[in-house]
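Sanity check

After download, print the first record. It should look like this:
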Amino acid sequence: MSAVDSLLVWTDTTAASAEAINLGSCPRRSSQDVPFRVLNTSEQYAATDVTVSIDGADATTFVLSEDGRRFTAALDLGTIPSATMTANLYLRRITPANANLGNGDARIVLTASGWTT
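Expected structure tokens:
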């Protein structure tokens, strides 16, 4: 495996890999779904046992889905073949009525347990 073998968050809105997904100003007691994909950048290796999760101080205000209907704290995507992008996944933000105003802190974490040819 080399430095170019990695998993990236890819957004439909920018058609590029995303270091961050900016949700803008989020009113209290609201929710928003944001589609994204996971790209395996490796030209040679499949990423195995890929999981998607959320961490950060505000991680509990986000959930993930593969179909846009059933949401959970983490997703198990299985194997992503080399040079392949997943179908749309969904990040749902749920802002509680008593949420602090200001910027939040959470990030999408992509983990592969291994890489194989």
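If your output differs, re-run the checksum step. Summary of this record's structure: The chain has no helices and nine strands.
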